[in-house]
Here is the input.
Amino acid sequence: MKMENIEDLYELSPMQQGMLFHSLAAPESGVYVEYVSCTVQGKLNIPAFQRAWQQVMERHPVWRTSFYWEGFDKPLQVVNQYVSLPWQQFDWRALPPVEQQEQLEAFLHAERKRGFELSEAPLMRLVLIQMGEDIYEFIWSHHHLLLDGWSLSLVLKEVFAFYEAFSQGQDLQLKRSRPYRDYIAWLQEQDLAEAEAFWRQALSGLNAPTPLSVDRALGSLPSEVESYDEQQIQLSVEATASLQSLARGHQLTVSTLVQGAWAILLSRYSGQEDVVFGATVSGRPADLAGIESMVGLFINTLPIRVQASPEAFLLDWLKQLQAQQIELRQYEYSSLVQVQGWSDVPRGLPLFESIVVFENYPVNASLGSPEGRLEFRNVRGVERTNYPLTLVALPGAQLSLQLSYDCRSFDAAAITRMLRHLQTLLEGIVANPRQRLKNLPLLTQQERQQLLVDWNDTQTEYPCDKCIHQLFEAQVQKTPDVVAVVFEDHQLTYHELNTKANQLAHHLRSLGVSPDELVGICVDRSLEMVVGLLGILKAGGAYVPLDPGYPSERLAFMLEDTQVSVLLTQQSLVEKLPSHQARVVCLDSNWETLAQQSQENPKSEVMPDHLAYVMYTSGSTGIPKGVSVIHRGVVRLVKQTNYASFSTEEVFLQLAPISFDASTFEIWGSLLNGARLVVMPPHTPSLQELGRALEQYQVTTLWLTAGLFHVMVDEQIQNLKGVRQLLAGGDVLSVGHVKRVLQEIKGLTLINGYGPTENTTFTCCYPITEPSLVGNSVPIGRPIANTQVYLLDDRLQPVPVGVPGELYIGGDGLARGYLNRPDLNSERF
Here is the structure.
């Protein structure tokens, strides 16, 4: 700081303080560095143009201002008496047009990153590049600390007024505007106590910013370094005119309409009715004389808190929003740092993560000489805030909406969708301003078609008219002598298994088992278990798996809830069962009696909509619920489906308890497709035992819980080398473990399977074959064949891609309902 060159010094405005903080925090990010570039065509008088800029710089103290903070209690801005005009001039006429454009883009990119030394005035640069005989590129860079958009327009008008005068050999005397220090003095006179009371009431109860979490597209990874980009759309002339007409007709501003649309978008994206975003206000107080012609940074960014109740009527709500804006103007001098301190949002969290800027200063209109001797084209303006998302609305014959975004938080596809949604909301406001907020459309027709129809077009041909046991019987006809099931040193062919199941089925028929009749089965993993399940289905009944390891109280509840008339078990488990009224059939000790029954397939009256089993959920929400699954749901899971291979060459390991719906995939995926089913012993195997079984029986298809999968990869990964398809689920899969298993086990397909019991085991699946295909998370994938999936908001409307919603499932896998729970069925099914 050269003392002899100091003209004035004073404190910073609240907005300047914030910008200085963020500029110093990320000096190489380009935050708050702005530039305007354009193509100038015509006979440009370069000396007059340069002199005009020098004259304007001398007129306004902000152009001679630098900033100091080290060694001071508060940052100060220092106005210098004189600074040199930062002018650069290049001649690129000798370069081919293509090379000119390449160099220009490279130059603009470098200019964006270049930044300013804030303690050295002037904080602006002017560059003129001659591209042709009468064609120039002009780039004006400056730091936002100096001036706002309205001031930028004032400066440009003065520049071209001086340019016209100097071009004609004349001088021009313009009235000097009030200096920026007068505005700083006005700020220091304001009553902060009144502002504090207003903001405390306005932000009462707000304790966090409105979340803007939008999932990235698969394979789209966030940038590791700070980088920003922008996208822009324009409304049609007709849509813009309609917005303007609606605003005039109801004493609203277009700015209010844009803010209203943004508030609704935030509400729909976040799922919250109480939303908050930042808005840039002009900050020019009406009671400060001459404010309209002052040059400097007057704008301020303040929180706009909006209650976006879905039931509110749109027009009344917009008027209320505008009234809120008018009230806020009385306190728009408030420092955002102070406002945050008056709120309940904890320190370290921002009040908001997005801001809305409505630029009511037409930069394009400020460019050009009054005589029209110069033509200005390709006008581009770039600025960067410190917020993850900045919406800039530019009025005109076509309303322009520009989103600047942090690439670490959003990908390009999400921003493209966001702009389309904003456009759809604005067009919906015009179409019917008297509707309720909840009825405003967000998605485009193309998106609705994609989300509701195209992505759920999973219909495939499969034997939907057959039941589980019928398909098994058909398989027996094809491969009677092929081994169907193996348990330790014992095995059954398809014919032998069918024969035993038939004998059991005829016995159950004699006990009164008929379609939809519930039959309990409480057995350890064994050959008898498989015979029991199949026999119940052949008899026409539906099995209720009762895990022998369950507490007695849980088993008692299930027996009471289902009122099973018959219970299949093993002699060793009879005394462990709680008191019940069912007839007991022991599949081991009673087998001599059962073996007297017919070996022929029973005639079946069962239809695909009849029950196949009732499986109880864990009861984590209270009382366990029995999910009633039909035959068609199971058939849709394992026949002519698309998420896994079910060929006769597969060897399935049966590891899951039959009370857990993964067993549905293991048992029926194998037996209805001619594959081999290997049943593990009833105790929980060690990792070594599991590994030996995989190797001994040459298992090719394996289902593991996420937790067991992670442990296997950590400790027994080589035992997976023979597995061709590994399905895992029940929890989030670790990216590191997924990558490792795919790297080390060649030829393996890993399938992340997701689905509730209510939709018959699997709803969505995501197959991965290469570690390079793994992103920063493992998705649940797309719906399997004959299954539909919808992500809906609390109004049961589809949410945009990447936006959180509640999962709704439909299709042929959907269970009939919860047993004896009509209250839940009316809500869930």
Observations:
- The two ends are 74 Å apart (CA to CA).
- The CA atoms of residues 243 and 249 lie 10 Å apart.
- The mean pLDDT is 92.
